[in-house]
Structure formats: structure tokens, C-alpha cells
Amino acid sequence: MKPQLARRRALVLFSGGQDSATCLAWALDRFAFVETVGFDYGQRNHAELQCRQTLRENLCRHFPHWAERLGEDHVLDAGVLGQIGGSAMTEPMRIAVQDDGLPNTFVPGRNLLFFTLAAALAYRRGLDTLVGGMSETDYSGYPDCRDNTLKALQVALSLGIERPLTIETPLMWLDKADTWEMADQLGSDALVRLIQQDSHTCYQNEREALHDWGYGCGRCPACELRAKGYANWSRRRADPGH
């Protein structure tokens, strides 16, 4: 564990997807104590919520040195996002690009609300760091995933709870191939297999077919991004000179 982080206590925004699973491993490798929080906002891909406990249990089984640092899990109701409506993440609509250039999988305010709720929970639980899997490198242009957004939010939340609070985004400047590489570096083949088999990212909520990169429909933007990243990482791993 890195000495400067040895006393810090983290809360990981843990959806059950590839990115948040990698971030949970990253946090367990660095922090003295880690709790997790998930959000039920009426998302169509509710399979991710069902994967969360399996991921936590398998992480503890395969990595007992991390199990000692893993604390409670929390699931908070963020159903108000579903009440607002208008998103392919919460309503049965075809995924498409909106007039403003953003995909209709964008849920406005989602990450802002998630971090606000996480900050309130962290205040009550005595945790000083929030960890999220947002990235500007391989993403759909969501404005609440941008580094500047989250830096501004860190300041606002710290002021709002009158307590220093750090937002860590270890994937911010990584693409999906780099994210697979991070998992390999953190936990070798065991962690990569765990993320392949136990995480869920597919927007269509499909878990029938297991691909090299994990379960999913293979057609939605989330599956395509994950598959492309896995293929690029596999080629890089097979031929490290290129």
C-alpha cells in the first residue's frame, strides 16, 4: 500500500460494471479501508446491480489481502432520475444521438447526484475519498464525466459538508484497453477473469452470451466499447513491442 494513502478511507461508486470493478480493485490496493455504494435509479440494465455482491464476494475470495480492507456495501435509491425520464437508460427507446449532440443514454445530473449522495454517506461513515470510474478518453461525451466537472464538484462538496473530501478518478485519462491493462496489473489473470465473468456493462441488460470481454448483447455502444478495448489490449499483450 502506498504510504501516503495508508490512512485514507474511501467510498467507491460501485455500479457492478467493468470500470467500477476495476476502480474497486484499485482502491483496495491503495486505501486502508474501503466501502462501496451503488444507486438504483430505475436503470434498464439492472443486471449491474445484481452483479455487485457477486463481484465483492469473489474479490474477497480471490484476494484475501483486499478482503481485510473491504467494509460495508450500500445501495441508495436515486429513483428521481427515472422520474425525470427522457433517457434510453431508463426508458425503452432506441439508442440515438440527440439534437444537442449527446447520446440519449445521457442521464442529466446522474453523476452530480451520485457524488452528492456519496458525499453525504461518506460524511456519516467517516470516509474522506470518493472513487469513481469516469473517463474522458473512451466515453460518450457525457459532460458529468469530465475532469473539470469533477474537480469543481470536489470543491463544492468539500465546502458543502465542511470537511476535506477528495474525488479520485483513476480511469480519467485511460481508454478501455488501458483499463483492462490496469486490472491485469492489479490482480493478473484472476482479476481479469473476474471482471469478464462477473461484471456487467451492457445497456440492453443481456447476460446470455459470454464473450471474450464479458457478457452482453455485443451491439450496444457499451458492449462495442468494451469489446474494442479488450481486443486492443489483447493485441498489445500478445505483441508488447507494438
Automatic annotation (TrEMBL):
InterPro entries: QueC (IPR018317), Rossmann-like_a/b/a_fold (IPR014729)
Entries under Gene3D superfamilies matching the protein: HUPs (3.40.50.620)
UniProt keyword annotation of ATP-binding present: yes
Signal peptide (residue range): none
CDD domains: QueC-like
Residues given in the record as ATP binding sites: 14-24
Pathway in which the depicted protein is active: Purine metabolism; 7-cyano-7-deazaguanine biosynthesis
The organism's place on the tree of life at top rank: Bacteria
Cofactor(s) listed in the protein's UniProt record: Zn(2+)
EC number(s) reported in the record: 6.3.4.20
SUPFAM superfamilies recorded: Adenine nucleotide alpha hydrolases-like (SSF52402)
Details of cofactor binding: Binds 1 zinc ion per subunit.
Binding site for Zn(2+): 202, 217, 220, 223
Catalysed reactions, semicolon-separated: 7-carboxy-7-carbaguanine + NH4(+) + 2 ATP = 7-cyano-7-carbaguanine + 2 AMP + 2 diphosphate + 2 H(+)
Chain's role: Catalyzes the ATP-dependent conversion of 7-carboxy-7-deazaguanine (CDG) to 7-cyano-7-deazaguanine (preQ(0)).
Family of the protein in this entry: Belongs to the QueC family.
Protein name as it appears in the record: 7-cyano-7-deazaguanine synthase
Organism: Alcaligenes ammonioxydans
Gene that encodes it: queC
